[in-house]
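User: Please fill in residues for this 214-position structure.
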């Protein structure tokens, strides 16, 4: 281990070269609190445990060049299939529609998103798994709606109550101590990461879509 690698490596250089500077502050307030019942999602996960998508955190052809470069660098510096397991439901249209029903119109009004433009994913991170630092490429959303020219809004909704070791970092904001339904906008091109270094599953929703037109 050489001394230089305590402060910089190929991944920090990649981030620095794109102007991401942790010493600058990003203002980030909670967007809203949705009225959701965690049990609705736990019931779904219990029934659908075996149908989740579990993809290795590695470059793949369906992702953008930048997304794949972030994954390649993450792989170089400690992330592998053993510590990045994300259980993920919502790619199936039936699941996506089911989630929209559970969330309901009232909550979509709070979000300010048009449900027909939304892709909803339910994510479950078991203890010991991490989503390394990245920015979002919205590839799944663009593919679903064939809208590669648009930038949607990405929201992260906490479903399970905050517990030991659960965190979301958005630039220099460490988000913790949340309640079910707490919702944050993850701004476009802003670096973020999350993880579960705790003892209970961390369950969240990722809602990606277009704002309601005024
Ligand atoms: Fe993300």
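Assistant: Residues filled in for all 214 positions:
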């Amino acid at each position: 281990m050489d001394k230089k690698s305590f402060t910089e490596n190929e991944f920090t250089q990649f981030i620095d070269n794109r102007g991401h500077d942790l010493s600058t502050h990003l203002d980030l307030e909670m967007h809203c609190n949705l009225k959701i019942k965690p049990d609705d999602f736990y019931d779904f996960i219990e029934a659908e445990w075996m149908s989740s998508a579990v993809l290795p955190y590695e470059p793949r052809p369906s992702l953008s060049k930048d997304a794949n470069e972030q994954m390649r660098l993450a792989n170089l510096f400690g992330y592998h299939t053993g510590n990045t397991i994300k259980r993920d439901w919502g790619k199936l249209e039936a699941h996506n529609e089911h989630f929209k029903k559970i969330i309901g119109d009232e909550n979509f009004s709070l979000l300010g998103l048009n449900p027909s433009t939304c892709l909803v994913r339910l994510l479950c991170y078991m203890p010991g798994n991490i989503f390394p630092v990245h920015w979002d490429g919205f590839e799944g959303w663009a593919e679903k709606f064939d809208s590669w020219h648009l930038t949607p809004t990405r929201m992260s909704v906490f479903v399970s109550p905050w517990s030991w070791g659960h965190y979301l970092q958005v630039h220099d904001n460490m988000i913790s101590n949340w309640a079910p339904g707490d919702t944050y906008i993850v701004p476009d091109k802003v670096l973020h990461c999350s993880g579960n270094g705790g003892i209970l599953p961390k369950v969240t929703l990722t809602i990606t879509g277009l704002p309601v037109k005024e």
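For context: Residues 127 and 196 are 5 Å apart (CA to CA).
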